[in-house]
Structures are given as C-alpha cells and as structure tokens.
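Worked example 4.2. Below are the chains of a multi-component assembly; read each line carefully before continuing.
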Amino acid sequence: MQGYHAIRHAVGLQRQTDRVALRFEGPDAEAWLDAVCPAELNLQRGQIKHSVLLHDDGRIFADAYVARLGRTRYLFARGPDRETLCAWLDARRPADCDATAHDEAAAAIALHGPFAWELASEVVGPDILGVPYLGIGELGGVRCLRIGETGEYGYTFLVPRATLADFEGRLAEHGPAFDLEAVDDAALAQCALENGFLDVRRAGVTGCTPLELQQQWRLSRRKPWPGADALKARRAAGLAERSVTLLADGPPIADGAEVLLDGKSVGRVLYSGASPALARQVALALVERPLAHPTVDFTLADGRPARSVSPPVIDNRSIYVDPYRHSYASRAEVGA
Amino acid sequence: MNDALRARLAAREALLEQLVEVMIRDLDLDREPDEIDPDTPLFATGLGLDSVDAVELLVMLEVDFGVKLDGEAEGRRALRTVNGMVDLILDRQEAA
Amino acid sequence: MTETRTRLDPRIIGVGAVSAFGAGRAALWRGLAEGRCAIGPVRRFDTAPLGTHIAALVPPAVLGPLGSTAGEPPDKEAPTAAAVRMTVIAAREALADAAVPADVTVGLVLGTSHLEGGVHRLARRVAAALELTGPVLTVSTACASSTSALGPARDLLRAGAADVVLLGGADLLTLEIFAGFDRLGLLCAEPCGPFGEREGTTLGEGAAFVALAGPTQAFGRRWGTLLGHGTANDAWHATTPDPTGKGLARALSAALSDAGLAADDVDYVNAHGTGTRANDASEWRGLQRALGPRAEAIPISATKSILGHTQGAAGALELVTTLCAIEAGTVPPTRNHHRPRPHAPRDVVSGDRPRPHPTGHIVSCNAAFGGVNTAAVIAGPQIEPPTRPAPRRQSLRIAGLGAVMPGANGRVADLDLRALGLPARRTDPATGFIAAAVQRAIGDGEIDPSTGLFVVQPRLSPQVVRAFEGRLERGLAALSPAIFARMVLNAGAGTCARLFDLHGPTSTMAAGAAGGLFALVHAAELLTHDPQTAGMLVAATDELPEGSPDDDDAAVEGGAAVRLDRHPGGARLLAWAIAPPGRLAQALADVRAQAGPAEPLPPRRARAPMAPLWQLAAAAARPGRHIIAVDDPVGMAVAVIIRGAAP
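Applying the procedure described above to all three chains together yields the following structure tokens:
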C-alpha cells in the first residue's frame, strides 16, 4: 500500500487507470444513460450522480458516475473492462436513440486528501473552490470533477493529452509544498473501505445485489432498469442478509472468513483490509439481517472478537479543514 | 442471540424506523422508509443532502430527539450516515 | 428618437432613515459619530428557545405598540402597522430633505422582504400615507432588496413616469425571521464583527430612503449621484454565496462599467459584510476580483456591526449611513473588528468612530439568499457628475417564449417537473411554474451565461408559507431552516439561475397586473444600457392558495417567460413606456410616438402579472404590430409595442 498517509493528512496523487471513461454526445445521450443506470439521473448542469450498473439478475456489475457538462454526458465506470462495458451498453441502448458513445481521450489525474483543494487551486486556479461536491466544471481547458472516494477532499482532472505535460509540470512545481505523494489502488481501496464506500472490484462482492450491500440509494423506483425485476422479487421475498462493517485486531482477515455469534455461524466476510490509521483490521461482512446493526460483538472463525460499527470508521481530517480558514502550511492549527 | 442483545437491537430498529420517518417528513425525501438503508451516506452522494439540510438535521435532532451538538465538527462527524445519527442519539440517551 | 439625448443619472436630493438609533438621519449620524453600538438584548419577543438573544431594534417609541401585552393574543396587524409607521417616517424625511414641491409626481420603489398581507401591501400603504401619485413597486431580493431596487427606480425616472422616486428599504425584525436566522446557524452570540474573529451576523431593522431625481429638477440637496448599478446571480447555491466571489465581482464590474469608471476611481467600499464566514470570505474574493490591487488600497467598512443586518433595508440604510459620514468628511467604522480573519480585507475601517477620509466615488455592495449580488457606484457630493449621451434604443428580438397555462378553473393541473428534467424535491409550485416557463423560453438553444433573469411574483408560494407555519406550530425551535430559506420571494429566481446557468442580472419584484410588463421594460432598458449582457429572461408567476374560490375568474396561477436579445429577425419588442397608475393614455401616447400607430389588444381581467405576458406570447405569433398595455391602479401603467412574426 502506497500513499495512505498522504491521503489522510496531505495530498495523494493518482493517475486514474481503474475506470472506463466514456463521453456521450447527441440529444438522447442522457436517455441512453438513464435507461441503463438504476439511479434517477435527471442531471442538472454541472452535476455528477453516483450510480451502479447491474446484471439482469440484480447482481452488481459496475460502480458508475454519470456527469453532465454542457450538452455532453460522461460515464465513469469501474468494474468491467472497456470492451465488456461497451458491449453491455450497446445491448441496452434504447431503440431510436440519437446518441453516440466515445472513449474519453483525456488523461485522468486525481488528487485526494484534506488539502487537495489547496493544491488544486494552485494548479488550476482558485475557482476550483466553486466546484461543489459531485460537481463538474471546466477551468482553463481542464475538466474538473469533485468526487470524494476516500472520505477526504477529492478532485479528478480530465487533462487533454496536448496539455498534459504542462499540467504535470505544475503539479511537480507545487506538489512538494504539500508533500504530494503518488498513491496506489490499495491505499485508495483501504480509504474507501474505512468510509463504507463500496468497492465493486473485490471478489466477494460479485454475487451481491444493492439490497444486501445497502446501496438502495442508487436505485430509482420511478423507472425500469436492468435488474429491476430481479431486485423487486428479491425485496418481496425478504432480505436474509445485510452488510455490516467490522473492526478486529490481529492479522489480516481472509475473504470469506466466517462470522459467528455465540459460536453459531451468522455470516461471512466479503473483504477486508488493515487500517494504518487505526492499526486494526476493517472488514465488510454479510450477516443475518436481524443482526446487521452496529455495536454487535461477533467473533471470527479464529476466535478473535470483531465488533460491528457504523462506517466511516475513522475521523477524516477533511471534516476539520475549512478552505476559508486553513492551509497546508499552517496545518498545525487545524483542530481535532 | 441472547435476550439483552435482542432487546438492544429491537430498540435500535425502533429508533432507526423513527429517525427515517422523521427524515422523510422534515427533509422532504422522495423515498419509502425501506429504501433508506442505515449505512446510507447523507450528503451529496447517498441521500444527496446539502448544507441547508445539514442545519435541518441539527434542528431535527434537537427538537425530535433532544440531542444538541457541540460545534460544527461534532455535527459533521455524527451526520455522515443514518446509522451515525442513531449511534449519537443512543450515546446521548445512555449518558443521560 | 434620433437626436442625441443625455443619459439620466439620478441625483440623490434627499435622505431619511429610521434605525436602531431612533427616527431620523440626525439620530443615526449622532450614534455613529459618538461611537455607540445600537445592538442590545432583544426584549420585544422571547428568544429563550433560541441560541441568540441580541439584535439592533428600533426604539419602541418610534414603532408604536408591537409586542403583545400579557394575556392578550398578539395583534396580527401590528407588525405591518409598525413597519408602515417607520417606513413613512423615513420616506417623509427624505421628501422633506429634498424639499419636493407638492405638484411633482413622486414614485416609490421599496426594497423589502416584508410581504405579509398580499401584493406589496407595505409599499401601497406607504404610498397612500404620503399621497404619492407616481408608480409604486416592491422589489424583494431578501437582504439585497433595496440595492436591487436602484435599477427599477432609475428606470422610472428615465421613462419619465415620475419626477422624483423615493427609493428605499424597510424591514421589521419579527420573531420568525430572528428564529429562522438562528436556526440556520448564521447568528453571532455577541454583536457581530465582520471580517474579524467573531463569526456570524447580528440582525437589525429599520427603514431608509433616498429621494432620486433627474439633473434638471430645481429643488433638493446635493448628496450624490447614482452613476452605476449592477446585479448578478451566483447560480451556485440557495443560501451559501459562491466562495470564488465571481457573482459579486460580476455585479460590481457591471456597476463600474455602467458608471464609466475604472477600479482605480473607487475611493471607498461599504461592504455587505454580514459577519458570516461564508459571506465575508466570498465578498472579499469578489472585491479583489473586481477591483484588483485597488481593493487593498482603499478603506472598507461594514456597518452591520453597529446597526445590525436590517435585511431588505440594509442597502438603503448603508447608503444613507455612508452619505452622512461623507458629508462629515469621514467613512463609517466597523466595530468589533479586532483581529482579522484569514482572507479578510487589508484595510477594514476598524474602531468605534468614523475615520476621516476624502471620498469621491463610493461602492456599496449587498448580497442575499438566492445567489443575489448587487453593487451601486455613487459619486459623492464633491464630484461633478459627467454628462453622457444616452444609448439609442433599438428594438429587441423576442427570442423565446414559454408559458405554463392554467385550466378553466384558473389552476395548473399536475406539472410534472421530473418529466421536464427539472428537480422536484423542495420545488414549490410557483418556482416550478417559472422554471418550466423559462425552460420553454430557452428551448433547445444553449444560453450565454451572461444572460440574466428578472422575476415577478406577487406573493410567496402559499405552499411554502403553509409548510413554514406547519413547522412553527411545533414550536419556535422546530422552525425549518430549509423552508425558511425559501421564505424569500427571490428563491425561485435563484433556483432558475442555478438550473439554467443564468449568471447575469437578477431581480425579483412583487407586483400585480403591471409587474410582468414592467419587468420586460426593465430588461429592455438593461439591454439598451449594458452591452455585456447577451440577453435577458423575464418570468412572471403566481400560485393560488388552496381553497381560494374557483369562481373568481380573475384569479389564475401559472407561469410566463419571455427571452429578449439583440439579434436581428424574429418577433420584436419595438417600444416601451411607463406612466403613473391611472394614466395609461400617457403610456400609450408615448409608445405610439416611438413606434407609430397601433391598437391595444383588449385588456384582460386577470390581476396576475403573467397574464399580459401570455397575451404578448399569443400576439408575437401574429404578424403586424400590437400594443400590450396594463394599468394597475396600485402599481403603474405600462405599454409596449411588439411586432409579431409567424413562428
């Protein structure tokens, strides 16, 4: 894991290659996305919405952000590769849909951390502070998306290849004053886990639907979408299991590890990770629905205690950092 | 599950139900109660609330649940998910 | 229309004020000069359930009976009566100061967020008390109301609809308003200290007026000249200002360019300076953006630290305060400013007493909920105002029209905002009507972000008022901050600005039948004078309360929107004119003189401001010239000539 502490205390730099980025043009661009995304889009200018893509049987297929800038719509999807995703989208394209999808050619560079906003304003100008959370805007030829995935301030920049060298030059120039460090996917995944943000790339998630993973906020009940019927049936049948976040001490926890209560198996760990901030293990588990609450003292198969908690499990630094008052240079003044 | 745990979880379910109902009412949420999962994030993503809703939540906690928050940071920490608010209310009830 | 005319820049020929220091500008100036603070404990109502207990209140002797005596039910009329009383005192003082002769036509443009009792009742009652014969208009953009009102006031003078316009603001502090700000967490426990360590604002109340007149009037004093006025919408958030300060910067830059001045001509800024963290930081960024290095070199003060935040009255009261200080060769102080906050102006006029400072050109800024930013540029009494040619009026293209029509019972049946791609959560019907109408007026075309929006709406959305009252029934502490934030008339304009990226001029007026056409004239005048604004949208709406009788065929709800720009072709707005109420013939003669003979369309019975715009929309699709005209006995007479074009 590289760059975890930079994300939690300073600024981490990510060259985003873990997502397929598609640009949709044409009058029905949003209609196409609206047909495949379970989330209610109704995108307003400069707005980003968080969705998910589902198999027809309701299992999660991809994590998705959709965005509207001017007339263009974007889809940023994590999970499937480009070919799989495009084939899936084409197969679900509404009839008579006047829209085209294109690969986004710009490089995606992301900054994460409690002072990401400050470095971002050095690099693209202070107007970045006017981009609201889950907003997209264009500053000096760079498209800026404000998406938090770590519980800290987060910005993704879509930088045209022609100006990439210049952009990276500015990052290199201003980065050192913020102890900017490259971060890897493992560090980002750990931060997401600590904040209760679902990571669809983990093998344990493959068989799950949004219902047990507490992702119903990404589902609209006003429109049809792939997987809607399957989830409706599943909801009607009653939910047997639901996700909880667990904290435990000791060595890493294996995916699939059993979760017990009073010696009886009541669930399993989907995935887990060691938190450098807490010096503890954090796990996402599925347990029997009546037990799926925080503050329950479970045990793991190896006998060690694991307590369920409400995510986020850490106190993100960004909660205390106020762009009106603070700066990285005087970070000692930020209260706890 | 022992009786103490069963009683504790039942109390938690009841509080969750009450909280979600009040949130739908006071925040004008276009959601059914069973669509709001307890770990749902409150702001921007999740329920999509904004800073005006944040003050609305503070008023709701004070008026409907007798919980007054000290300072901004405590609010931002507690008001991250529905479950976070339940934890806060239960903590305060225990402390009282 | 071909001869070169001189541009009318209104002279300030009289001032008057009622503040927490008492009645009269002398009391105001005395309080300031003696270094006193008008903020104190609130005794008028019980603030015990709330977190804040101070405000700057007008002395009871000035307001008359207000608080309910023990055991008696509160008098619902008392707040309006008290508001009328203090407003009349301030307006009368300004008229007397200007020595306005009895036979001149005096109009009234009032900025206020006090909207109880129907269509701009406060302004109507003040006009009646002063026996004014000119046009009457209420402008309501929350805390920027009276600075927003400068634009319409100037247009009335330019249109020759009044010889003198009383321009001012008035707001009484009620328990509901106090509780709303408290619940939003915007109040400071101690008297506020803008730009300093203390965060949060302190509320106040008052009324202030300036009497404005063209340069040819032979009476009045010489307080200053309104050279420039600018407004802009953040199009960012309902209550929080855009942290980049872009909106304020656009408003101020527009005001400077309207004044024909550069940043280096500005000698002093009277800031909005509420004291809240978000406002002060954003305002300073905006001042820096618009004024550049000049912002660091000139004194800036925020008198809310002395007089409280008087909401709709703030702009006018701060203008009068500034003019009084300048008359004494000083600028007003900012109290409670001990240690500056990060990102605060370099030269805040701190301390208790006015600071001697030679001031030529003044900038006064105000901002408000709904993303409103306003700025005025005023030449002080020492400056001889320039004579400038008036821009030539050109016909304007009616670039788009939109309507949300009621059914036979006067009501709009289900308007499905989601189906229109508009957000539905917390969108009240009135806002939905204008949003849908504006969306139709924009059509498929992209819109230039310099485009502005003027809205006319006679009353707050009854649905919002009902929701607000419903929450109040559960106790003061249960007051909903989110609903309170929508208890400003300009909430709908703010929503539309955000939805459609309308960063240009912004205003909301409370008016009846003539309001829609007046807003159209206001927009046409703006496009005539301001080349930076690519186009304007004008929208009107009204929402009927539940249970209002269906058999009143003058009662209608719905929305209308008109989009104007300078492009050639299409249906066109050829001429426009305004006259005092009851003098429609004068307005008709005026438009015919501009554009030639045409016959007015038959008048409609509807009292709603969108009705004439619906009429205009129908006429715009029929080739030929048409007059649309309205005479509102409690507002003004307006007439326009359009040339229709087959769609």
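Take a moment to check your reading of the output against the notes. The domain at 396-544+553-644 of chain C is CATH 3.40.47.10 (Peroxisomal Thiolase; Chain A, domain 1). The CA atoms of residues 39 and 56 of chain C lie 4 Å apart.
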